[in-house]
Amino acid sequence: MKKSVYLLVSLLGIAFLGSCSTNQYTVTATFPDEMFDGDWARITATHDGSVLDSTIIEGQTAVFTGKIKTPVLCLVSSGHTRGQLILEGGTITIDMQDPGKPAYGEGTRLNTRLVDLTTKYSELMDKIMNYHGEDAEEYHETVWVPEFTKEIGSIFNANSNNDVGTLALMYLNNFVEKEELDTYLDKAGQVVRSRGPIEKIIKQRTAFKQTAEGMMFTDFTIEVSEDETVSFSDYIGQGKYVLVDFWAGWCGPCKREIPIIREVYDQYNGDEFTVLGVAVWEEPEATLQAIEDLNVVWPCIINAKSIPTDIYGISGIPHIILFGPDGTIVARGLRGDAMKAKIAEIMEVEE
Predict the structure, then answer these.
(1) Same domain (yes/no): 191, 84
(2) C-alpha–C-alpha distance, residues 124 and 121, integer Å
(3) Which three-class secondary structure state does DSSP give residue 204?
């Protein structure tokens, strides 16, 4: 009996030591040359900027040792030289000797997966950047995006609760349809969902759904100057259809959309329809200059910053929404010919 108890305690002790050892890390980072000798090197969490470890570089090598409870995506850096790794238990190396070459951690399970992800992402981006066919737009939508979604989505599915998955989800957010993005967000584990960039995406998607087509508009008030405020409800829900363009003067696609909006405005502006601009993410002076340069003749709320984009879950501009006479959201994400067709359809019914 005593032997059995002793054996059990011994086995538990071995298991405990084994579990502790998996949290131990050694990271060896090699910098370009010995000019780095004596400088500080740091490991910083990418999701919140916190410094997780630091050490002095000897020659051109920095060695970090410590414990990490949950693996985390990090930058290892000194000055402007940096590389990316997953800080996790094990022996990790990162070679930053070539400043022109991206550097990634090697030697552990998640760092191998990180390299697989970033390599695949680079291959896919090179593929679309180097495609010069006349059907480039169609190729992007019908061939490249599905391939991108399949490849990066597969890596996410295998890493849905670690920071390889966090980075994969951030990549997917840039290209997949938002409804499809929701399926990946639903699969994300707590580690991924707790990261700041993913929390922001989740918040945007929640706001988007709360202001979806068929929902009533959400009001906001902007301080356009020291002694003047304007509310969205000054324009929305006042008995007219209102086409609202969330835009900025620095935004190339926004500028290209202005002439199309002007066509719609010139054709339909009146008792039943009008256009409103809402300038976001830029200073009022820049907006006023853009209004003059682009000949924007419809009303525009300036200095809105991120207030309306947070409320309406807008992650990119231009974002154009059609509101009904009572303030109901009729359509979202309108652009170009599709926007013109939607307005024509609505106005023909009204006639």
Answers:
(1) no
(2) 5
(3) helix
CA angle in degrees (0–180, nearest 5) for 167-93-77: 65
Q: Is 65 in the same domain as 128?
A: no
Region for residue 239 given its phi and psi (left: phi exceeds 0; alpha: psi -120 to 50; beta: otherwise): left
pLDDT tens-digit profile of 28-48? Answer: 999 999 999 999 999 999 999
Distances 232 to 84, 92, 285 between C-alpha atoms, Å: 43, 53, 21
Three-class SS of residue 115?
Answer: helix
Question: So what's the pLDDT on residue 350?
Answer: 64
Token pair for residue 282? 């830029």
Residues 268 and 328 in one domain: yes
Residue 30 lies in a domain: yes
Q: Summarize pLDDT for 232-253 with one digit per residue, the tens.
A: 999 999 999 999 999 999 999 9
Q: 146 and 38, same structural domain?
A: no
> In the listed set 55, 88, 106, which residue is the last one of a domain according to the structure?
106
φ and ψ of 273, to 5 deg: -150, 145
Residue 338 lies in a domain: yes
Q: How far apart are CA 117 and CA 131, in angstroms?
A: 21
Residues 100 and 204 in one domain: no
Q: Examine residue 28 and state whether it is found in any structural domain, yes or no.
A: yes
Using an 8 Å Cβ cutoff, are 151 and 172 in contact? no
Residue 143 DSSP class:
I
- Which CATH number fits the domain that encloses residue 284? 3.40.30.10
Tokens at residue 3, please?
């032997």
Rounded CA-CA distance 222/309 in Å is 13
Tell me the C-alpha distance between 189 and 310, whole Å: 24
Q: What is the spatial distance between Cα 265 and Cα 270, in angstroms, rounded to a whole number?
A: 9
Half-sphere exposure of 131 (CA within 13 A, CB side): 17
Would you say residue 15 lies in a domain? no
Q: Are 108 and 90 in contact (CB under 8 A)?
A: yes
Q: Which residue ranges of the chain lie beneath pLDDT 70? A: 1-21, 350-351
Q: Give residue 63's identity as a one-letter amino acid code.
A: V
List, in sequence order, every beta strand (DSSP E) within 48-136. 51-56, 61-67, 72-78, 81-87, 90-95
The answer to whether residues 342 and 244 belong to one domain is yes
